[in-house]
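re: the backbone from monday

yeah here it is again, tokenized this time
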């Protein structure tokens, strides 16, 4: 049984076509992607629909225009009829449904020719990624133009994508540290103070040292820390290399906080990290794969067929990493040997790990 705060490390095995004795789990991939062998994956916990933004440059006074797009379900390119420069949101949605299917498009925002508009794929296309439409005809007058681009990429809940998260940088500056002048648990003497940033994946190495001298017993004050990444869940404070407490940031800021030797978040025996583990947990693809418009997986760079006759919506990926058990929830350490599942993550930055 693993203890809270334990550091668990699993060596990433060599990624081969078939992994023997590794820690593996089937993962679902989104439609219309190609992922290379060895790609690090992260799980997206929540779903989101694909959107496009239609913006207006300068003034549009009249004329017509057309859009061409690819139906993500069929892969077929289609084009709208001529569209008036001041087409209503409802009529634009209807025109785009000729490409994407009835009821699969919603258009919101300031009506043309003012704009901007948000075009959302929904219903049958909920969670599907799509390529941006292109203007195939633009006969607008008045000197202006319409421009369209992807807003957010669609995804369904629980799918895995190429993991874009990088290691969080170690704190570059020493914290602002001082005695408060109020009676506290820190005796007169010299202290070396550091901070480290904790995320869902791990913890950075420590900051440069702030050396302070207290002439009498008092509390330790850590000044406000701003500009923190949204991934930072705690700022851990270390005194003379030992964990002294933690600050939970809000809106990218860790507020000024005073500590005594009996601070509630002290983790006994926890020492300042020497290595940055914020990017270590990983899920690795053992082979190059691609998916078709329905999310069915094939081997190779192009989705030209299925893994088997029925098609397959998941592929086995290899999991390994270094992390602290208390950073993860859903721990099932009683499973056979060390095959427990741990879950942790948020909409924008989540992982599922197996060990």
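seq for it, each position gets an aa:
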């Amino acid at each position: 049984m693993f203890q809270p705060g334990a550091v668990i490390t699993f060596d990433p095995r060599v990624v081969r076509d078939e992994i023997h004795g590794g820690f593996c789990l089937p993962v679902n991939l989104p439609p219309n992607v190609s992922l290379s062998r060895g790609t690090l994956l992260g799980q997206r916990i929540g779903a989101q629909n694909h959107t496009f933004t239609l913006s207006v440059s300068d003034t549009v006074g009249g004329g017509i225009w057309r859009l061409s797009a690819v139906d993500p379900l069929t892969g077929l390119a289609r084009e709208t009829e001529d569209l008036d420069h001041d087409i209503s949101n409802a009529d634009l949605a209807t025109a785009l449904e000729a490409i994407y299917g009835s009821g699969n498009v919603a258009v919101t925002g300031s009506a043309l020719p003012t704009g901007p508009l948000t075009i959302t794929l929904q219903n049958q296309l909920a969670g599907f990624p799509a390529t941006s439409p292109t203007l195939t005809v633009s006969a607008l007058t008045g000197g202006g133009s319409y421009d369209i681009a992807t807003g957010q990429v669609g995804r369904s809940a629980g799918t895995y994508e190429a993991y874009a998260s990088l290691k969080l940088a170690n704190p570059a500056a020493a914290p602002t540290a001082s005695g408060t002048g109020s009676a506290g648990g820190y005796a007169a003497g010299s202290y070396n103070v550091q901070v480290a940033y904790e995320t869902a994946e791990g913890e950075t190495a420590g900051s440069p040292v702030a050396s302070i001298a207290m002439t009498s017993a008092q509390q330790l004050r850590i000044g406000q820390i701003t500009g923190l990444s949204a991934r930072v869940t705690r700022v851990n404070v270390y005194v003379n290399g030992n964990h002294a407490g933690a600050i939970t940031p809000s809106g990218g800021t860790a507020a000024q906080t005073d500590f005594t030797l009996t601070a509630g978040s002290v983790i006994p025996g926890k020492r300042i990290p020497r290595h940055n583990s914020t990017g270590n947990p990983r899920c690795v693809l053992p082979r190059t794969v691609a998916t078709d418009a329905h999310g069915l997986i094939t081997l190779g760079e192009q989705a030209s067929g299925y893994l088997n006759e029925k098609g397959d919506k998941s592929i086995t990926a290899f999991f390994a990493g270094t992390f602290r058990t208390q950073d993860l929830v859903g721990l099932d350490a009683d499973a056979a040997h060390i095959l427990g599942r741990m879950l942790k993550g948020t909409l924008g930055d989540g992982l599922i790990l197996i060990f």
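The helical segments are 89-100. The chain is about 5% helix and 35% strand.
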